[in-house]
Automatic annotation (TrEMBL):
InterPro entries: Kinesin-like_fam (IPR027640), Kinesin_motor_dom (IPR001752), Kinesin_motor_dom_sf (IPR036961), P-loop_NTPase (IPR027417). Residues 37-64 form a coiled coil. This is Kinesin family member 25. The chain crosses the membrane at residues 15-35. Residues 335-358 are annotated as: Disordered. GO terms for cellular component: microtubule cytoskeleton. Belongs to the TRAFAC class myosin-kinesin ATPase superfamily. Kinesin family. The keyword Transmembrane applies. GO terms for molecular function: ATP binding; microtubule binding; microtubule motor activity. ATP binds at G167, Q168, T169, G170, S171, G172, K173, T174.
Length: 487
């Protein structure tokens, strides 16, 4: 009976408790869901904010490259210079490996390099360096090129442009400029497109930009030069059998005060793959030598130049220039001498760079030339570390001397000295117009983070800092008339 009286109450109590339980659970679930949703919303907001910030930064970088005037931009790429089992096949000891991998330089953010090191027996270092862009070792060739590409728009807008890689031996200059190098010295292993460096990518981009222009208004010529032991070699010069071999050339200063290499071979190219083939041939002549730091060390400075000639139509050529005198001079000088290849109309390329028939039908035509100089400097080198002797030691001494001549030139321009010692070295004489003249100049510093290379790293960072202090005159733009498509 007792039980009978109580059981509905118990049942009621049980179902009540159950209900409460369900409510509590539901409440907790809703609360958790809301917290999660809030968290999600927050992280989504964070991601969006970060994305927007990154987008703004990229835009600012893009604009600053387009608007780059006078000053030199410096980007810095950090990548561990790992010990390799040296050219003679000696394996590197564990101790040396550790020494190499202990870091002294870090990308603190994408504009700052932090150098922090305290080694027993050495003065401690704690310094930051500011550049326009800093790449950590995780950043790809794509990322590096994305920051360079706007300069190529400038090139077709009438500016001279120079991109130069600087850094100690083995720090990644050739990789950055050309891409990974194969044993046979073929600069551009096409299978590895994602690893291609600035030079092949820039050429592709130049031809892409040209393809968007009115047909027949542009053509592109290439020259490849190496500065080896303070001598200039034309790497595209051919012998009577059509085989390329390095011919010694000289650099002179023209009456207008520009540097020029008389008799230098300029080959017309009509697309990026023609360019790659040509440069590959030239590069097979570039001198390399194994050292203890880098098994495939470049022993010369490489300068690849693309000259873009734009055909300008009309009577008032001289009024198209900001500086009237330049306009008049160029008006006199300009003559439509087209490359042989184009006059013969032998090209089968689809590039819009060539349309000789159209050119010859027009009388009032003048040329405007802009130049893209792509420079892979030989690496500065500490003889004690690279272990070079004999001819290689002589090469090292020429490399180091020409690099310090380059630093002296920057110093003289930065201090606005009356005399800038361009002629102290063939390298600086050759690069005179880009370094001190009217080109938009970007220096790509390559450094190693390892403690082992602290001295070389500090030297390169010092070079980059000095380059940023240089205030040159306004970069000159060559104005073109606006040509509408299909004209
Ligand atoms: N960011 C990178 N990612 C992957 N490999 C790299 C990178 N940078 C350099 N390397 C590799 O490191 C080695 C040395 O690089 P690289 O030849 O570019 O040095 P370098 O600065 O041109 O040296 P040197 O002045 O002696 O010619 C090469 O095998 C190259 O492929």
């Amino acid at each position: 009976m007792h039980m009978l009286n109580f059981s509905p109450v118990v049942r009621d109590t049980n179902s009540g408790a159950l209900l409460v339980c369900i409510f509590v659970k539901l409440f907790v679930k809703i609360a958790l869901f809301q917290i999660k949703a809030f968290d999600l919303e927050q992280s989504l907001q964070e991601v969006t904010e970060r994305y927007e910030k990154e987008k703004q930064k990229r835009k600012a970088l893009h604009n600053s490259l387009i608007e780059l005037r006078g000053n030199i931009r410096v980007h810095c790429r950090i990548r561990p210079l790992l010990p390799f089992d040296d050219a003679a096949g000696h394996s590197v000891s564990q101790d040396r490996r550790r020494n190499f991998s202990e870091k002294a330089a870090y990308a603190a953010d994408d504009e700052t390099v932090l150098v922090k090191c305290s080694r027993p027996g050495h003065a401690s270092v704690n310094k930051t360096f500011q550049f326009e862009r800093v790449y950590s070792d995780l950043e790809s060739q794509d990322a590096v090129f994305a920051d360079v590409a706007p300069l190529l728009t400038s090139l077709l807008d009438g500016y001279n442009v120079c991109i130069m890689a600087y850094g100690q031996t083995g720090s990644g200059k050739t990789y950055t400029m050309l891409g990974p190098q194969l044993e046979e010295n073929l600069a551009f292993p096409i299978e590895e497109e994602s690893e291609l460096g600035i030079i092949p990518r820039a050429t592709q981009e130049v031809f892409r930009l040209i393809s968007e222009k009115p047909p027949g208004s542009y053509w592109v010529e290439v020259s490849v030069v190496e500065v080896y032991n303070n001598e200039i070699f034309d790497l595209l010069a051919k012998d009577s059998y059509g085989k390329v071999f390095g011919v010694k050339r000289d650099v002179v200063t023209t009456r207008e005060g520009k540097s020029d290499v008389p008799l230098l071979t300029h080959e017309t190219v009509e697309n990026a793959s023609e360019f790659l083939q040509l440069v590959n041939k030239g590069l097979q002549l570039r001198v390399t030598h194994p050292t203890l730091v880098h098994a495939h060390s470049s022993r010369s400075h490489l300068v690849v130049t693309l000259t873009i000639t734009t055909v300008v139509f009309g009577d008032n050529f001289s009024t198209l220039w900001e500086d009237e005198q330049t306009g008049q001079r160029l008006n006199k000088e300009a003559s439509c001498t087209f490359p042989q290849k184009m006059r013969d109309n032998k090209s089968t390329s689809s590039s819009r760079a060539s349309s000789p028939v159209q050119f010859e039908a027009t009388e009032k035509m003048k040329q405007v030339k802009t130049r893209l100089q792509l420079v892979d400097l030989a690496g500065s080198e500490c003889v004690g570390m690279s272990g070079v002797t004999g001819a290689a030691l002589r090469e090292t001494s020429f490399i180091n001397r020409s690099l310090s001549a380059l630093a002296d030139v920057l110093g003289a321009i930065a201090e606005q000295r009356a005399h800038v010692p361009y002629r102290n070295s063939k390298l600086t004489h050759l690069l005179q117009d880009s370094v001190g003249g009217d080109a938009k100049l970007l220096v790509m510093l390559c450094i190693s983070p390892g403690q082992k290379y602290l001295t070389e790293t500090m030297q390169s960072l010092g070079f980059g800092t000095r380059a940023r202090q240089v205030q040159r005159g306004q970069v000159k733009k060559k104005n073109f008339p606006v040509l509408s498509k299909g004209k």
